[in-house]
């Protein structure tokens, strides 16, 4: 489908599910654990996991600044859940010493859906994708503020959290509160790969 080389940030979290999804799509990928692994990739996926731990490991491994630079330089990126939290400019209910990659002008709230609804599923209308997208939320964040130039791509359709923003895009950066990599539905990954393809074409 594509000749793009996709990196998957692999310091912690649900790396394998993204690898499996990319395998399914025939996309070349590699794990990004050290700064040198960023060399030559056309896009980066930041998986779900524990954003405080990921932030700490990025610092310890010397990946934080190289990642910030790559993103500031226009590297296409897709963050799921904890990955969304890392990409955001600001995260609420986060540890004071947690680091942000500042690649998305949004404010997210961690574990926003509350303890009672730790995990749930919903069918979402997703801007740019035709039929509803199945979405699995696991201790997910939501987006409380979007800056100028940030598109809202999906919101929670019903229930106590109706209207909560759960998918956004700003230029080359995509983020979802939920985990398409666990549903077997590859459309959001394909959406991201199309972004990567366009951005490569522009270089
Ligand atoms: N609650 C986690 C965090 O704040 C995110 C959960 C997930 O990635 N599934 O890092």
Automatic annotation (TrEMBL):
Pfam families (UniProt xref): SNO
Family: Belongs to the glutaminase PdxT/SNO family.
GO cellular component, one term: glutaminase complex
Function of the protein: Catalyzes the hydrolysis of glutamine to glutamate and ammonia as part of the biosynthesis of pyridoxal 5'-phosphate. The resulting ammonia molecule is channeled to the active site of PdxS.
HAMAP family on file: PdxT
Active site: 81, 179, 181
Single GO biological process annotation from the record: L-glutamine catabolic process
Chemical reaction(s) catalysed: L-glutamine + H2O = L-glutamate + NH4(+); aldehydo-D-ribose 5-phosphate + D-glyceraldehyde 3-phosphate + L-glutamine = pyridoxal 5'-phosphate + L-glutamate + phosphate + 3 H2O + H(+)
Pathway linked to the protein: Cofactor biosynthesis; pyridoxal 5'-phosphate biosynthesis
Binding, L-glutamine: 49-51, 110, 138-139
Record's subunit section: In the presence of PdxS, forms a dodecamer of heterodimers. Only shows activity in the heterodimer.
Protein name, as recorded: Pyridoxal 5'-phosphate synthase subunit PdxT
Key words of the record: Glutamine amidotransferase, Hydrolase, Lyase, Pyridoxal phosphate, Transferase
A GO molecular-function descriptor: transferase activity
């Amino acid at each position: 489908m594509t000749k793009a080389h996709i990196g998957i940030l692999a310091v912690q979290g649900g790396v394998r599910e993204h690898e499996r999804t990319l395998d399914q799509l025939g996309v070349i990928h590699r794990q990004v654990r050290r700064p040198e692994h960023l060399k030559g990739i056309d896009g980066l996926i930041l998986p779900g996991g524990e954003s405080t731990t990921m932030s700490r490991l990025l610092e310890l491994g010397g990946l934080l600044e190289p990642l910030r630079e790559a993103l500031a330089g226009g590297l296409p990126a897709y963050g799921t859940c904890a990955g969304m939290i890392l990409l955001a400019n600001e995260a609420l209910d986060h540890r004071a010493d947690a680091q942000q990659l500042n690649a998305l002008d949004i404010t997210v709230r961690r574990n926003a859906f509350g303890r009672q609804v730790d995990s749930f599923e919903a069918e979402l209308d997703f801007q740019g994708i035709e039929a509803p997208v199945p979405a699995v939320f696991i201790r997910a964040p939501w987006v409380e503020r979007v800056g100028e130039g940030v598109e809202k791509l999906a919101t929670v359709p019903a229930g106590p959290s109706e209207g909560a923003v759960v998918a956004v895009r700003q230029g080359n950066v995509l983020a979802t509160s939920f985990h398409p990599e666990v549903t077997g539905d590859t459309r959001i990954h394909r959406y991201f790969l199309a972004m990567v393809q366009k951005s490569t074409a522009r270089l």
